[in-house]
Design a protein that fits this description.
The chain has 237 residues and is mostly helical. Helix content is 52%, strand content 11%. A hairpin with a 5-residue loop joins strand 4 and strand 5. Helix 2 (39-49) packs parallel to helix 3 and helix 4 (96-109) crosses helix 7 (138-150). The radius of gyration is 23 Å and the shape is globular. The chain starts with a helix and ends in a 5-residue tail after the last strand.
Length: 237
């Protein structure tokens, strides 16, 4: 065996040891995150989002009590974190059920920024950082979200008159969006769609919150050629 061959073997061994150390670190980090889901944190998520992260086996009794207290169905209990590597079987076939839960997990983590309301194309773009675009298409995202809606794992899925499909991950009672809108209304007396878009809300998210407040009788919508689209809140004056 020549010197070059020995050097190659040494470098390969070092690379394998480094990779093993990285994988071990990732495993320990993942385990730490799971153990960090204490009863207090799980209770806060259940109350705020209407879902239970039941991934800590040591607090099973607490999880069962939360389900009863907040009326959370089994379909909205997450018992296992789905990793990107879990989405495909050994033959490379996509599991749409796992894709649905994977998307949900990531949306839950970003709920305060997104509001949990997406069109299918927006969800597809949401997955871009995970480098899945070459393996997953719009139809896959659509199919997985429709399945989540049928099993009552998410709040809803609808096709608008325009033909755009919209996904609602959370029930209205578990979103604080309306509080943000009411806060703006108290300050200004009126809310424009542009006010919410300026906060980096998606248009679907902003319109959904405003329409909900109109349906409940809290807000009144007015549109004119001169003033544009405005939402008034008579009860806040």
């Amino acid at each position: 065996m020549g010197i070059r061959d020995i050097e190659k073997k040494i470098k390969l061994k070092e690379a394998m040891a480094k990779k093993a150390a990285e994988l071990k670190a990732q495993e320990l980090e993942s385990r730490a995150r799971v153990q960090d889901f204490t009863a207090v944190k799980i209770r806060a998520i259940a109350e705020k989002h209407g879902f239970i992260l039941a991934i800590n086996d040591e607090i099973t009794a607490e999880i069962d009590a939360l389900r009863v207290r907040y009326g959370i169905p089994e379909s909205r209990v997450i018992r296992k974190i789905v990793k990107k590597e879990d989405l495909f079987d050994e033959k490379g076939r996509l599991d749409h059920d796992k894709l649905g839960w994977f998307i949900f997990q990531e949306v839950l983590a970003e709920k305060e920024e997104t509001g949990g309301i997406f069109t299918i194309p927006e969800l597809f773009m949401f997955l871009k950082p995970f480098d899945l675009s070459e393996k997953i298409g719009l139809k896959d995202v659509q199919k997985s979200m429709q399945a989540m809606a049928r099993s009552n794992a998410i709040a809803g899925y609808e096709t608008l008159k325009s033909g755009v499909d919209v996904v609602y991950f959370f029930d209205e009672k578990f979103t604080s969006d309306y509080k943000v809108v009411l806060g703006l209304a108290k300050q200004k007396g009126v809310v424009l769609l542009e006010d919410l878009l300026a906060m980096r809300w998606a248009q679907q998210r902003a319109e959904k919150a405003l329409e909900s407040l109109v349906r409940s009788g809290i807000a009144r919508f007015d549109e004119s050629y001169i003033k544009g689209r405005k939402w008034y809140f008579p009860g806040l004056k």
